[in-house]
Amino acid sequence: MDFDKALELFEPVLGFEVHVELNTKTKMFSSAPNNFGSLPNTNVTPTCLGLPGSLPVVNEQAVRYSISLGLALGCQIAESSRFARKNYFYPDLAKNYQISQFDEPIAFDGQVEVELADGRRFEIPIERAHMEEDAGKLTHVGGSTGRIQGAEYSLVDYNRAGVPLVEIVTKIIYGADRDAPELAKAYVSTIRDIVVSLGISDAKMERGNLRCDANISLSPRGSGILGTRTETKNVNSLRSVERAIRYEIQRQAAILAKGGTITQETRHWHEDTGETSAGRPKSDADDYRYFPEPDLLPVVPSPELIEELRAALPEAPAARRRRLRADWDFTELEFQDVVNSNLLVEVTETVAAGASPQSARKWWTGEIARLANASDVEASSLVAPAHVAQLVALVDAGTLTDRLARQVLEGVIAGEGSPQEVVDARGLAVVSDDGALIAAIDEALAAQPDVLDKIREGKVQAAGAVIGAVMKAMKGQADAARVRELVLERAQQ
């Protein structure tokens, strides 16, 4: 159903569960390394594999990170919280249960301010933020979709099993209306900004460091009756969160308008088609047979620790944005260009690495965003902010023109090394030797002997033909401004 028509008939009701992987050195309950990208099944211990006799030990740093996140979300921190066993069988859970928190989370009852593209602010109520361990990762081999349906067999990697997680659960969100897709994107972006500023997670959605389960139901407009919700699982990009919410509104509205019913279920998001598909019937808490984890004591943080962590909190994202805009001296349009592109973190880190704010904005929202759109990926996944800052420095130093810098950027993205390494390997530096430039100018003038006379007659634009010929001869590695200076000097001789 058309989006506008769907909103005439129904009111969307939202809820989000955002999973944040913490960047501790070791896992939540074992000494196994918490590293991304290692060979499969190498970052494991008997505890990760659920072997008999192995016992969990709580990661203290993960607890500190979880408290910091709870405080940043405006939550109350529990005087005592405890872990529970969440029981269900799946091959990526070697123990056949997940250690999580159920009725006694470490943080609860918070609120986060989210700012939309037009500057309007929306308060998102937080129900809880609880600690748990991640599951392993399955790779389904065979078939055309990469999912279990149609696969010939599946491989399991337990490297991720036991990685510390904080799950942030919102309360029911009313009143988003047609802003629902944008609000979903803005909320996840705000959570990403918070965890990055706290330094507790890499928050790279393409790696699964931060994942969103998006819940949505439709209420007949004006009825006040809650509809049946669906949960689109593990959406791993800001763009996809927005698209998934929009699609589910349209899909559910079409079913309800025809008198059908919505199944309470998990759903999978398909980036290629922009659609969701059915997963499994959604389990309620009773289905997981929660009971207190017998091998772990309650977590009882001291008031002194909580106040220490509270004092170390960074600025709230909304306040930080207002400060950055002033510090960078951006117009409202320029700043919204960065925010709407979901590149605030990348631009901030590029500026911190030494680039000017305008240069950082130019490259991220310009060439890098163009390349990302062409490949249908997140811009942040293409290149590191430090490399963008190095690229800007090479342009500022006159080593590269913008045209050459674009070639260097492509080399960096292709994995050829840092900007300087790409320049050296490809020989892309600007030719700064006046002797070489003069030789190329003389050759171009020999082919166009009337150019100097035209310049002497005041037709300075005639120099453009020579400049173009020199740039072509130098394969774009000449400084056009310097070539122009030399041509005009020749005309004065």
TrEMBL record:
<keyword id="KW-0808">Transferase</keyword>
<keyword id="KW-0067">ATP-binding</keyword>
<dbReference type="GO" id="GO:0016740">
    <property type="term" value="F:transferase activity"/>
</dbReference>
<dbReference type="InterPro" id="IPR017959">
    <property type="entry name" value="Asn/Gln-tRNA_amidoTrfase_suB/E"/>
</dbReference>
<dbReference type="Pfam" id="PF02934">
    <property type="entry name" value="GatB_N"/>
</dbReference>
<dbReference type="InterPro" id="IPR003789">
    <property type="entry name" value="Asn/Gln_tRNA_amidoTrase-B-like"/>
</dbReference>
<keyword id="KW-0648">Protein biosynthesis</keyword>
<dbReference type="GO" id="GO:0070681">
    <property type="term" value="P:glutaminyl-tRNAGln biosynthesis via transamidation"/>
</dbReference>
<dbReference type="GO" id="GO:0050566">
    <property type="term" value="F:asparaginyl-tRNA synthase (glutamine-hydrolyzing) activity"/>
</dbReference>
<comment type="subunit">
    <text>Heterotrimer of A, B and C subunits.</text>
</comment>
<dbReference type="Pfam" id="PF02637">
    <property type="entry name" value="GatB_Yqey"/>
</dbReference>
<dbReference type="InterPro" id="IPR014746">
    <property type="entry name" value="Gln_synth/guanido_kin_cat_dom"/>
</dbReference>
<dbReference type="InterPro" id="IPR006075">
    <property type="entry name" value="Asn/Gln-tRNA_Trfase_suB/E_cat"/>
</dbReference>
<dbReference type="GO" id="GO:0006412">
    <property type="term" value="P:translation"/>
</dbReference>
<dbReference type="InterPro" id="IPR004413">
    <property type="entry name" value="GatB"/>
</dbReference>
<dbReference type="GO" id="GO:0050567">
    <property type="term" value="F:glutaminyl-tRNA synthase (glutamine-hydrolyzing) activity"/>
</dbReference>
<keyword id="KW-0436">Ligase</keyword>
<dbReference type="GO" id="GO:0005524">
    <property type="term" value="F:ATP binding"/>
</dbReference>
<dbReference type="InterPro" id="IPR018027">
    <property type="entry name" value="Asn/Gln_amidotransferase"/>
</dbReference>
<comment type="function">
    <text>Allows the formation of correctly charged Asn-tRNA(Asn) or Gln-tRNA(Gln) through the transamidation of misacylated Asp-tRNA(Asn) or Glu-tRNA(Gln) in organisms which lack either or both of asparaginyl-tRNA or glutaminyl-tRNA synthetases. The reaction takes place in the presence of glutamine and ATP through an activated phospho-Asp-tRNA(Asn) or phospho-Glu-tRNA(Gln).</text>
</comment>
<feature type="region of interest" description="Disordered">
    <location>
        <begin position="265"/>
        <end position="284"/>
    </location>
</feature>
<protein>
    <recommendedName>
        <fullName>Aspartyl/glutamyl-tRNA(Asn/Gln) amidotransferase subunit B</fullName>
        <ecNumber>6.3.5.-</ecNumber>
    </recommendedName>
</protein>
<keyword id="KW-0547">Nucleotide-binding</keyword>
<feature type="domain" description="Asn/Gln amidotransferase">
    <location>
        <begin position="346"/>
        <end position="491"/>
    </location>
</feature>
<comment type="similarity">
    <text>Belongs to the GatB/GatE family. GatB subfamily.</text>
</comment>
<dbReference type="InterPro" id="IPR023168">
    <property type="entry name" value="GatB_Yqey_C_2"/>
</dbReference>
